[in-house]
Fold ABC transporter ATP-binding protein.
Amino acid sequence: MPPPTDSAASTAATAAPAVRTEPRTPDSRPGPAVSAGKPPAPRKSTVRTLLRLWPYVRPVRTRLFTAAGVAVIASCLGLLIPLVLKWMVDGPVAARDPGGVWLGGGLLLLLGITEAGLFGLRRWLVARPLAGVEAAMRANLYGRLQRLPVAFHDRWPSGQLLSRATTDLQLLRMFLAFPLTFLLVNSVTILVGCAILLSQEWTLGLVLLGPVLPLVVLCSLFEARYSLAARTARDQVGDLTTVVEEGVLGIRVVKGFGRHRSQARAFRELSHKLRGTELYKARLLAGLLAVIMTLPELALGTALVLGTLQVSEGTLSAGTLVAFLSTALALRWPVESIGFLLAMSQDSATATERHFEVVDTPLPRDTPLPRDAAATDGATGAAGRAGPAPASGSLPGPVPDENRPPGETTPGRSRGGAPSPSLSGAPEGGLRFEGVEFRYPDAPAGTPATLRGIDLHIRPGETMALVGATGSGKTTLTALVPRLYEVTGGRITLDGTDITRLPRTRLRELIAVAFEDPTLFSATVGENVLMGADGAGEGELNRALEVAQAEFAHALPHGVRTQVGEQGLSLSGGQRQRLALARAVVGEPRFLVLDDPLSALDVHTEALVEAALRRILSGTTALVVAHRPSTVLLADRVALLSGGRITAVGTHQELLRSDPEYRTLMSGDPQNPVSGEGTPAGGPPGTASPTRRSPAGADGGTSR
Ligand SMILES: Nc1ncnc2c1ncn2[C@@H]1O[C@H](COP(=O)(O)OP(=O)(O)OP(=O)(O)O)[C@@H](O)[C@H]1O
């Protein structure tokens, strides 16, 4: 996969002094391939790259080919005009026959009108289907982006993806509408024109064909250089889009820290780089055009002199010379346009390449079934091994009925509060981490894995608080449960079923998550909340809002139908967090994963949310990341995450008594740890002794 930014730029730099002398972008973050340590893949030929568009073009091929045929006819009709002229000069004009001249004039007018009409028809034929092609490509790209793992999005700057979904696709639509057709039309016109020239006077025809060879060599040199510059320019547009997007989304920070000047400078520098690349492209194209225009003009001048001599010697008729020169002039535009068309084709090949870099990125393959499970659970396994998605975007089917809890009609939902029966009927239900290890894909080599040897069992209906210092890996651990990232060792089970054997759709029906950063979408409050459960209605919405103490939504100008701004920024942080919590609980999920869900709430609201959450949590199996004692007290037990391992499991009281690190974390003051006896609100009575785990995470205590 060629990288979007640096490598393309550097490759282009070898060919393009203008690009080489430009400063590096201020945010010259390595592109995906660079960060992956891969060298840029060599570019396929332009034609092979553009041929990849065929699956998108196929459905509209009839109209497109018809349009191309119409354009070829229109263009060839134009070549008849010199022949009519020849007839007029040698015939009616020489014989001073006004009737013949009028007839010839009428014929010329008819040819001109027909040519214009046919070109209009071509435009009409392609406009609608090509808008459809662009829409299909955009939908495919967007679908892929939605299905690609979070790790992919961690690596790719958003502007690179945005520019692929917008400007690149516009460029491709324009290419299909104009350059593609005219490359064909103009090539055919040139061939037919050359045949006419040679048939009229072959010696003069050969003179005109003289520049063909040097022009072919020049075009291939141009293609090699221009394609690199085109790639650099497209990637720089992506970088620029990233800067604009970050500047707009981070406008509060930019203004709050008075960083608008440095932001503007970063933008200017990137714009300057892009301008340099575009100028380099323009210089390349200007050089090509200069030669493309000069050589044929020289040949035409030579042919004109030789033709005039032949007419004066009487070896050539005046009409033939007029027709010859008119044909040669009619070929001027098709020849001269080759430069532009080649440049646009290069730009389009680059856009195609960039499109398929995303679309070709493999989707994560689900872990293959163990042999014994494959024999007994083929249906689930087949669905679970999603692999690369079909283009149609079909999703793996639901888990077979035998895997559904008895009496459950809607897959994955167990509305009603009581702990649900196990997924597979396995005796060891709940959420279990078994020797889980996780390393971020782009973590530097040699660094320890973020999570190591995680063994943790959250029993059915139990709420486990996950406590740990900042950066200890709490968010990472919670992200593994809905498979936002794949474990790199060990496994996670839900009611005894390995989560990699559950189709992702099924998994995400079973688990609801609320993240630390409560992202909302540009939609109504109600739509944002109901996103958490398919088929939920107003009753569920109101109940979820009540649980999350988000009843402020009813007081908004249009109640739950109030549109929230982009990312929900029109709401306060605490309001957004409560809506995100409502979204997590609206479906009464079997498993709930909450990443510090109450951090932005004031003490009073937090107490109200906790009271309501307690009811919800009593009916689910939950993992709740907690920083504050008040949140910890929602849990039945607490797991302490330290240095990427679970180092202790027990009740809040037990850990306060026995674990200095936990005491320190709960006190928030390393000098003044909370004592086990003096908990802020009194924890649930501990029933078992806490388990202090060895660093290797091996214990056999209460957690297992
Ligand atoms: N996408 C990522 N790629 C690489 N490393 C990451 C990524 N996200 C987090 N990390 C690293 O993983 C470690 C654990 O991060 P994580 O966000 O899980 O910590 P946390 O315990 O949730 O912290 P906090 O309490 O501050 O939210 C950190 O060192 C962080 O730098």
